[in-house]
Specification:
Blueprint: H1 2-22, H2 38-41, H3 50-53, E1 71-72, E2 78-79, H4 87-97, H5 103-129, H6 134-137, H7 140-145, H8 152-167, H9 173-191, H10 198-207, H11 219-243, H12 245-257, H13 267-272, H14 282-316, H15 321-335, H16 344-353, H17 358-372, H18 374-383, H19 389-415, H20 421-424
Antiparallel strand pairs: 1-2
């Protein structure tokens, strides 16, 4: 029943989330269909959404099919139907724009299109982790970000992959992992990040689930997982690339050209940039440094997460692929040059599934609120010409609070127990990693001798 309750609660939360964003939409519009109140209250009332903002500038108001006719200028401006997101997000944007004549229509249609994915996520998380799923279904991040951008479908694909591997244990590990690889690849075509989880998944398949004394490396299974993920990504992207290569390539170029500026909420802007204020080269030197340091540190964090997973495997007997996936996501969020507020939705499923102290979770949500609310009040204060010192301090609390806790979560995730052992399983004797379990394969802890 908890799955049903979680889904119903999620539905109520989504309604609140939509009403929050809809405060910026409706009423009188200009000739482009833009709500006149949007620019005047989007920051002061904290109802801004990328969905409403991108009604203009991406061909959505003209109902242009994405990527086919678009491109990007040398200074990074998208043209035609090009958008800055992978192809499935662009496709969802186009579908949401069909039948829309104003940004308010577009916001409503997009919300209706994405809401089922949030409900599915709530249901699957409850099936895996029980009442902890309410962190997703009723948490502040869903209110703040459900309809801020196009995140709900991509989160659903990642959670579906976790569900297939950990719950559907009547199927072989290889079959479950291949199905999960399809979900992760689809997620990659929405927002890229689920593609990161293919690596720990194939390591998990390679090492297997059987007792160590009976284990053989499943090289063929691991290769099949990799091939399935790659093949799915190619199959989804190839039609767009063939029909309009310039428009398809523009989304990649846009992200490559994006700089670590005041809108990115990253440690780079708030931590490293001030050090370049009075140096030769200044802003240009700072951006050059970030363009190198950011990807290098992201890759290093991935390698460290996989290695920590290997160490855990040696202790517990099962490779903690979901914990490693969560750690990789933490590394990405920590060091990527862009840390948009809505990325918190990516992290929430790991906080639901893995046994992380609730005190840390509450602290993270408070820091996240400093960004999700504070950054828009900061923009409003700057735009109004007011003294923005207080708002800036709030934003920095959010930036550094999140950054510190992401480091903590990075290490906790790899060693964390699942929230519900009976649903997600135990790993080896100590239950330190996520892996499926059934009654006939449960491994009892070793007997302790008396002192």
């Amino acid at each position: 029943m908890i799955a049903l309750y979680s889904t119903l609660v999620c539905g109520i939360t989504l309604l609140i989330a939509y009403m929050n964003k809809a405060r910026c939409a409706g009423g009188a519009v200009d000739e482009s269909g833009r709500s006149l109140i949007f620019d005047s209250i989007k920051d002061s009332n904290v109802c801004y959404s990328d969905i409403q903002y991108l009604w203009l500038g991406r061909g959505i108001d003209e109902h242009l099919f994405p990527y086919i006719t678009g491109g990007i200028t040398p200074d990074g401006q998208l043209t035609g139907g090009a958008v800055e997101y992978p192809v499935l997000s662009g496709l969802f944007m186009w579908i949401g724009g069909l039948g829309s004549h104003t940004d308010a229509d577009f916001l409503l249609h997009s919300a209706l299109l994405m809401a089922p994915f949030a409900l599915l996520t709530a249901y699957l998380l409850a099936r895996m982790a029980g009442p902890s799923a309410l962190l997703w279904a009723a948490g502040p991040p869903l209110v703040l970000y459900a309809f801020h951008n196009w995140e709900l479908p991509v989160v659903a694909t990642a959670v579906a992959a976790f569900y297939v591997v950990t719950v559907l244990t009547k199927y072989s590990l290889r079959d479950r992992a291949i199905a999960a690889a399809v979900f992760l690849a689809i997620g990659f075509c929405f927002k890229l990040y689920p593609g990161l989880f293919v690596l720990p998944l194939l390591i998990y398949v390679l090492l297997g689930e059987s007792p160590l004394r009976e284990r053989r490396f499943d090289v063929r299974g691991a290769l099949m997982v990799a091939a399935t993920a790659i093949g799915t990504v190619v199959a989804i992207n190839l039609p767009f690339a063939l029909a309009g290569y310039d428009g398809w390539r523009a989304s990649i170029t846009f992200q490559q050209l994006r700089q670590a500026d005041i809108t990115t909420n990253s440690i780079w802007y708030w931590g490293l940039r001030p050090l370049y204020a009075n140096t030769r080269g200044g802003e240009a030197a700072f951006q050059d440094m970030v363009s190198v340091a950011s990807p290098v540190l992201v890759v290093v964090s991935f390698a460290l997460a996989c290695w920590l997973g290997w160490r855990r495997y040696q202790l517990a007997g099962v490779y903690p692929w979901i914990g490693v996936s969560g750690a990789m996501l933490c590394g990405f969020l920590e060091f990527h040059k862009v840390h948009s507020p809505q990325y918190t939705l990516w992290l929430i499923p790991f906080l639901v599934l893995l046994e992380v102290p609730w005190g840390l979770i509450v602290t993270y949500l408070m820091a996240d609120a400093c960004i999700g609310i504070g950054v828009f009040r900061y923009f409003y204060a700057l735009g109004a010409g007011n003294n923005a010192a207080f708002e800036q301090n709030i934003v920095q609390i959010g930036v550094w609070g999140r950054a510190a806790l992401l480091v903590v979560f990075f290490f906790l995730f790899v060693a964390a127990r699942p929230r519900s052992l009976g649903r997600l399983g135990v790993a080896g004797a100590e239950g330190l990693a996520l892996g499926p379990v059934s009654a006939d394969r449960h491994v009892a802890p070793p007997a302790r001798t008396a002192a």
